[in-house]
Write a structure and sequence with these properties.
The protein has a two-stranded antiparallel ribbon with strand order 1-2. The longest helix has 11 residues, at 37-47. It is mainly alpha-helical and 54 residues long. The mean pLDDT is 78. The protein has helices spanning 2-8, 37-47, and strands at 20-21, 27-28. It has one domain. This is Replication A1-like protein, putative.
């Protein structure tokens, strides 16, 4: 969540810099997007299902 918040506050692509390291601490150009189902499950249980507007 912290990464999302940090990236969402950037005002231009030019000013965004990320350092991505693999398991061996080598610099990489990409990473895996990990989404934990438990997070969405807790949100669903806390605030309920999304409202559908027609």
């Amino acid at each position: 969540m912290e990464l999302y918040v940090a990236v969402s506050r950037v005002t231009s692509r030019k000013s965004l810099k990320l350092l991505i390291l693999n398991e061996d601490n080598n610099v990489c150009k990409e990473t895996t997007n990990v989404v934990y189902g438990e997070v969405f499950q807790k949100v669903y249980m806390t605030i309920g299902p999304p409202a559908i507007d027609f």
